[in-house]
Amino acid sequence: MYDQTFLLQYQDENGSWQSFNSTQVLEKDKDGNPTKYLPARLRLSDHNWNQSTQEVSLPDFGKYVNEKAEDEVALRLIPAKETMSGKTGDTATFRLDDVGFGKKASDYFYSDGTSMATPMVTGIAGLLSTKFGTDQRNADRAAEICARIKGGVNRDDAKDLKDMSVSDGFVDAGAAFDDAQCVPVLNDLTIDGDTATLKGYFFGTQGTVSVGGQNAAVRSWDANTIAFTLPDGVKGKQEVVVTPANKAYGRDFFSITPDTVNYQTLSAPNLDYGELSGYPLTSADLYPLAAAATDNTLIYSGLVLETNQIKLAAYDFQTKVWSDVPLPENTFVSLMAAGKTKFYMQCVVMNAEDPQNVTSTQTLATYDPAAKKWSQVETVLPTGASLVVYQDKLLAVGGDDSDGNATKSVRIIDPTTGKTTGTLAELPEGRSSAMVSASGNTLVVQGGKNGTAKTGDDAITYTNTMTFDGKNWTTHTDKFLTKDNPEFDKDQTLTYALTAVNGGAVAVGPVQNLGKNSMLDTWDFNAKDGAWAGDAGRLYSQTKTTQNIGAASGNQFYVLGYTGRNTEPMVFRSTTVDYTGPTADPSGDQPTPPGPSPSVNPSPTAAPADSGTTGKGTNAGTGLFGGGSGIAMTATALLLLAAGGGLVLYRRRKG
User: Region labeled Disordered — which residues (predicted)?
Assistant: First the structure.
């Protein structure tokens, strides 16, 4: 329709269409009186309606009234060349939405691209939201509305949009309301061996599936899920086309590679945490903080950001069932470690009997999952210290001194009294809020800060690793687990689960070559040479995961990750590792400390002024997640904020 002129016409009292003049004069007589006017018109060029007529010259406009509608005047625009062509085909339809009267034309123009598509699609989404998904959780409702916009496609009038988008057309608001007209929308593809499972919407009556142009044998088919056998030899990124027997096709592109390699897929947690304003809260709403595992149980802690509640979830290795672990009343958990059969957690217990004078007590809690029994003792651990069980002793590693600087101390803590009973060899350099994990004689300290409260130019975030072999500490110069590492894909959320293994560590999360056959997301650290290397024999998830958290038990490293997919928001998998766990639970039978304990900075009983800031990263235990200091910082912030009587955290809502 570009570079075309449209004439403006009115319908006279006889029903005939007549052109009329603008006020723009083309010719005058010898006396200067106008004799010819430029016709009233509009011209379209470069995506915009350009006004060609300042005013319409039509005296006594009211007499031009259509006799069939006494209070209306009929106007139309027609192409000056009789035929209107456009980018959607050889001919096009022009619809005049509105006409304004006056001396200034309205700012009304044609446009395409995202600037025009966004308000159109938003409007359709608003219309769909009035009818669909009103009884669904918000994420499911949004997913269905999104699918209807994609599935309600007009291909008949979009002759040159083939292969311009996965829908091969443009949005059709009317079709989006009709299941029969909505074509299949393909959302997620997971692969297990030679079986692929496709999830989406509007799959209709069973028809055919093709992958890379080859037909696939269908195993099962319903409105939202199709299982089929992958054709032989198909790999890499391929077009998947679903053609129901009763409607048109739908398509999308997926990487035909196993969703996981040498990991066992387990049941992810899906616990019910009530609702907020009609929005159901489940395990997928938890912001994970820490994880640890005994011989029989894994427990992870998480924060429900919408309600500021700490939750604990336990996975039984024998029954393979998740369950909720009720916390003692008014108790906040941050740090976590595990022995052979029991868990040890740094907590803050709130005393809120007087709302005007909320006080708190720092405790060391012990939880026995077999007896489902809690016990707590008062303790004073340094702010930013990390808990870990090493050689059957409970350690508090690093943390802040009384001046807010990270210390080198490694304290042995009696879980029955909460007191320091001895020390291990000091760290080579001070660390606060570090990731700490142990396996046999190997103790790993990864990342951390030079003080939890330090900011600006005074703050240092470490990215290297330190290891202890039972006799000596080694400071490595790896600096590997950082967003600046060129081996990782750019602009990714760098969170990871980490566990010590004998002679090193394993981290899961950072991605190289996302979506490719050469994709890596599992990384091995060798303490002997101080180097990390990608493990090509293992792949945790073909989909990038974030907020990864994990813990080792037996010969398995268990990792929980968030996919960002509505159909499968979390994955829980395990892989075989060379791990040696505690042989007993820590006890009070520890050596007497050689002298006074170093000065420490215990978690305060009042929140600092800037304590509303939270970070992303990890916490300590037998396996943890995130960047080197972030979640440990978050855990510390929880203690500070809880101690101050308030907790306010924010996040972007999923879905």
Answer: 576-620
Cα torsion 355, 358, 364, 370 to 10°: value is: 0
Contacts of 354 (CB under 8 A, 6+ apart): none
* Cβ 547 vs Cβ 538: under 8 Å: no
**Phi, psi (rounded to 5 degrees) for 587:** -135, -175
What per-residue confidence (pLDDT) applies to 76?
75
Among candidates 220, 238, 237, which has minimal Cα distance to 229? 220
- Rounded to whole angstroms, what are the CA distances from 641 to 287, 332, 400, 605, 651? 16, 10, 17, 9, 17
Closest CA to 507 of 518, 520, 516: 520
Return the domain boundaries, the chain: 4-111, 116-256, 264-643
Question: What's the fold here for domain 264-643?
Answer: Neuraminidase (2.120.10)
Distance CA 655, CA 285 (A): 11
pLDDT tens per residue across span 22-63: 777 788 888 888 888 777 776 655 444 444 444 555 555 555
462 membership: H or E segment, kind and range: strand 461-468
Least confident of 138-147, 290-299, 433-442, 640-649: 640-649
CA 41/CA 49 separation, integer angstroms = 11
Backbone angles phi, psi at 197, to 5 degrees: -120, 120
Q: pTM for the full model? A: 0.69
Find how far residue 493's CA is from the centre of its chain.
9
Instruction: Quote the radius of gyration of the chain (alpha carbons, Å).
Output: 33
Edge-to-edge order in the sheet of strand 250-256: 185-192, 195-201, 225-229, 214-221, 208-211, 236-243, 250-256
Under 8 Å between Cβ of 85 and 1: yes
Q: What angle do CA 542, 544, 546 make, to 5 degrees?
A: 140
Q: What is the mean pLDDT of the chain?
A: 82
Mean pLDDT of 455-469: 93
Q: How far apart are CA 224 and CA 628, in angstroms?
A: 40
| Alpha carbon distance 190, 206 (integer Å) | 20
Residue type, 344: Y
Q: How far is CA 606 from CA 284, 347, 415, 594, 609, in A?
A: 31, 15, 25, 32, 9
Fold of the domain built from segment(s) 116-256: Immunoglobulin-like (2.60.40)
Distances (CA, A) of 1 to 19, 54, 89, 161: 21, 22, 10, 16
Measure CA of the first residue to CA of the last residue in the chain; give whole Å: 39
Q: Which residues contact 62 (CB under 8 A, 6 or more apart)?
A: none
Which region among 206-210, 495-499, 526-530, 632-636 has the lowest average model confidence (pLDDT)? 632-636
